[in-house]
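Hello forum,

I keep getting stuck at the same step: I have a sequence, I want structure tokens, and every attempt I make locally crashes halfway through. Rather than fight my setup again tonight, could one of you with a working pipeline run this one for me? It's a single chain of 370 residues.
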Amino acid sequence: MQLTSFSPADRWDLLVRRDDVSALSLRPRAEEPLEPGTIRLGVEALALTSNNVTYAALGERAGYLTAFPAPPGFGRVPAWGFAVVEASAHEDVAVGSRYFGLLPMSTDLTVRPAPTETGSFLDTSAHRGGLDDSYRRYRPAGEPDHLDPLRAVVQTIYPACLQLADHVRDMNADAGPMTVVLSSASSKTAIGTAERLASDPGIRTHGLTSPANIAFTAGLSVYDQVSAYDDLGTLATDGPAVFLDLTRNPDLVTSVHHLLGNRLRRTVLIGGTHSVQPLELPGLPEPERFFAPAQQALQRTKVGDLAYEQRLAAGEQQFLRRAAEWLRVDEQTGPAALRTAFRALLAGPQAPDVATVVRPRPKAGPARPA
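Reply #2:
Ran it on my machine without issues. Output:
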């Protein structure tokens, strides 16, 4: 049964059909009692980004649609955001505690937390056992403030920026000066990555974007140079280069390979604003597929969870301050708004200077812990 009207007390899920992720339905769901050791998180706000399209499109192959229980033939698309503990049957997690992590497009979810020394917890529910730890980790969140909608967006995309920048620096440890070419340069992930790389004097960044986004992208003053996709002749570099491709557009990747020739040390594929289909490039060097959670796991092992999370939080705060100058958040509320916003993402790329954050319920919540 689809949900046609709701009250703030209703519990509901936005479901996608596994064989057609564009087929969306809102379904009511009854409250279930908590088992010992579990908690119920009320979803406070969800940041909608291109990640959600990837999660939906790769849901069957990569397991994203198994992250949260759903009726047979359906899935709940994951989204990053804030949640508050509505009810707790776990002695170490208090009602009113607030977290940031991977959530369903729903009003709530039940998790089985295993607290960590950093104040985070991992959801140890059996159905999430096959997911990487980064998808099961919930970080403690501070008191909400006026920057929270923007913070939801920043904390969604910034871990990938941090991992990408670290990965590039690892590649370039002994290589000397290098140019990093980033496609989809107007995307938030590319912008955040370029900002991380800007502090490295040995790295020059060259952003590629659509003609419509040239003025916006160049105006950020993040990249050393910005070019349109139809003007790749400016992509000249005397030294070695690395190509970070966020489009998965085979024509673009092929063009960049041919232009840079043997100066191109490596191509790294990240996500995909153009397609999530496998990329075939006959006759060209095999691109590297970048998986941010794997890189994050390496960094956590290298420096420890606490040091990693402190570094991540500091970077997020810096990016938050800068993003506040150019990124506007469109805040919406309710199931119909969530369905409409997700459909818009499925339809294609959004304006680079706008992000959408949806509250499943009107702004209100349980009492905060004393």
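The CA atoms of residues 177 and 201 lie 8 Å apart. If your local run keeps crashing, start a new thread with the error log.
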